[in-house]
């Protein structure tokens, strides 16, 4: 009779599908475990002022480095790399990106990585191709000149969704299920959507709802808590256009 009681208690219609004891009661606990796994927010009552100097914002190996049109990255810099689904990602971001992709897969979002680490030389070819096709001023709105892309840190990744291929690298990505999920949940994995609407004058780039930048969970949570859209504003670092 135990099995019957469990089925009644959970309202489960698929009789025989679940072992006794495994039903609705286990689901909230599993969800809670997933949500809290590995990255706890500070406990109430023990909150310390956020330490904005905990990591360098100028060392390209730092998870808080700020690379923009006024703060270049050394052409020779190359991060320590780990592979995530065949793409090169800086070591600190690899585990969190793997978890983000696994959880989003579980929700049926089906993200693919379109681009992650890009060397100085590769960025030069990407930018050069866009300049050749669209001219320099148009290219500068959507692509970084070599030495000004945070993809060279290995901490950035561009995601696309095969379900909405027309929105790959387009503004409408923000309105896809995947884009909406990233905007709400990327911070849980330590990522920020780096180029947001209304911040072009600060970041120097048009909105890119597909471009994630790893900064670690504490900073991602603090940016969210303080409703701060850009690293430049949070750290009072100049951005905007090329000097
Ligand atoms: Zn990108």
Please characterize this protein's 3D structure.
There is one protein chain. The protein is α+β, with helices and mostly antiparallel strands. 35% of the residues lie in helices and 12% in strands. The chain has a domain at 74-243: Muramoyl-pentapeptide Carboxypeptidase, domain 2 (2-Layer Sandwich), CATH 3.30.1380. It has helices at residues 2-10, 26-36, 91-106, 120-134, 136-142, 177-185, 200-203, 217-225, 231-235, and strands spanning 81-84, 87-90, 112-115, 156-160, 191-195, 208-214. The strands form two sheets. It has a four-stranded antiparallel sheet. Residues 1-40 have low confidence and may be disordered. Bound molecules: zinc ion. Residues 115, 151, 156, 158, 211 line the site of zinc ion (ZN). Zinc ion binds at residues 115, 151, 156, 158, 211.
Identify the quaternary structure here.
single chain
Low-confidence stretches: 1-40
Amount of helix: 25-40%
Largest β-sheet summary: 4 strands, antiparallel
Mean pLDDT: 85
| Total helical elements | 9
> What name does CATH use for the topology of the domain at 74-243?
Muramoyl-pentapeptide Carboxypeptidase, domain 2
What fraction of residues sit in β-strands? Answer: 5-15%
Widest sheet: strand ordering: 3-4-6-5
Instruction: Please give the number of β-strands.
Output: 6
**What is the C-level CATH assignment of the domain at 74-243?**
Alpha Beta
Helix-and-strand structural type: alpha+beta
Bound chemical compounds: zinc ion
Question: How do the SSEs run, as a string of H and E?
Answer: HHEEHEHHEHEHEHH
Query: Based on the structure given, which CATH architecture of the domain at 74-243 is correct?
Result: 2-Layer Sandwich
Termini separation comes to 76 Å
Pfam families: VanY
Region (Disordered): 35-56
Biased composition (Polar residues): 44-56
Protein name: LD-carboxypeptidase LdcB/DacB
């Amino acid at each position: 009779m135990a099995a019957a009681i469990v089925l009644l208690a959970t309202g489960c219609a698929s009789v025989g599908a679940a072992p006794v004891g495994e039903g609705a009661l286990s689901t909230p606990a599993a969800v809670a475990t997933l949500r809290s796994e590995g990255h706890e927010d500070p406990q109430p009552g023990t909150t310390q002022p956020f330490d904005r100097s905990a990591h360098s914002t100028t060392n390209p190996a730092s998870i808080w480095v700020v690379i923009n049109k006024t703060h270049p990255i050394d052409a020779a810099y190359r991060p320590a790399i780990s592979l995530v689904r065949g793409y090169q990602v800086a070591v600190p971001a690899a585990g969190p990106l793997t978890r983000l992709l696994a959880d989003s897969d579980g929700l049926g979002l089906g993200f693919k990585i379109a681009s992650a680490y890009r060397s100085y030389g590769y960025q030069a070819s990407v930018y050069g191709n866009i300049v050749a096709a669209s001219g320099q001023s148009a290219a500068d709105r959507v692509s970084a000149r070599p030495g000004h892309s945070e993809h060279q840190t290995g901490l950035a990744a561009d995601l696309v969704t095969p379900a909405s291929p027309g929105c790959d690298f387009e503004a409408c990505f923000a309105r896809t299920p995947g884009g909406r999920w990233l905007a709400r949940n990327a911070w849980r994995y330590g990522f920020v959507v780096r180029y947001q609407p209304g911040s072009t004058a600060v970041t120097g780039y048009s909105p890119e709802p597909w471009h994630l930048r790893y900064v670690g969970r504490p900073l991602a949570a603090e940016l969210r808590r303080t409703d701060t859209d850009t690293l430049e504003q949070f750290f009072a670092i100049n951005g905007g256009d090329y000097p």
